[in-house]
């Protein structure tokens, strides 16, 4: 009887060990597949908020910025498409804590979770910026000078925002985003907000200091310059040799 019990116990132990070994030997889901699934879920979450708003009551982003973040130039709503993910996250966080002045955006950001903010920033950063048609008249010479050369205590804008204001990319993009093709009125409002201390001054207080050294005429001129710049540079077709 004792032998039978021991034998049964031994068989049960072997069966348990065997099942555990079989389970541990099952192949785990491929990392790439898991990452793709998480990315798809994040994009689905973002599109839901973009088109319909958040369950907490944030308004749909598409109302002002368009389904793909193309913005509304005539209404001075900036395009979000193609802006760096880190920059977009930071701005929504600034709106949430009332560090950046805009009642509408403050109310929206305050109703977004960190997961939703991350999803929206990722979504818009992956969209293609809208094409910008060249203006009928060139931007004012004063704006071109400030953008390309700077003057007195104001460094050239392209030093941080890249050629044509299309950004530098890399780790600096969250602090110095591309500004090409944004509505002139929007750029002008942001420079005035920095000048009046209504927007965080950025790394080392740079934008706050620069804006304070710009006159109203200079702000208008440099805003018109960057509003006229193309968001994308299309490479010319290679020359076909006979």
| Average of pLDDT | 86
How many DSSP-defined strands?
0
Instruction: Specify the overall morphology.
Output: globular
Helix-residue proportion:
40-55%
Secondary structure layout:
Layout lengths: L1 H23 L6 H22 L9 H4 L19 H12 L6 H7 L4 H12 L15 H8 L9 H4 L22 H12 L10 H7 L3 H12 L15
Structure notes:
With 242 residues, the protein is mostly helical. It is built from eleven helices and no strands. Helix 4 crosses helix 5 and helix 4 runs antiparallel to helix 6. The N and C termini lie far apart (98 Å).
Outline of the structure:
With 242 residues, the chain is mainly α. It has eleven helices and no strands.
Using brief descriptors, characterize the structure shown.
disordered C terminus; globular; about 240 residues; mainly alpha; single chain
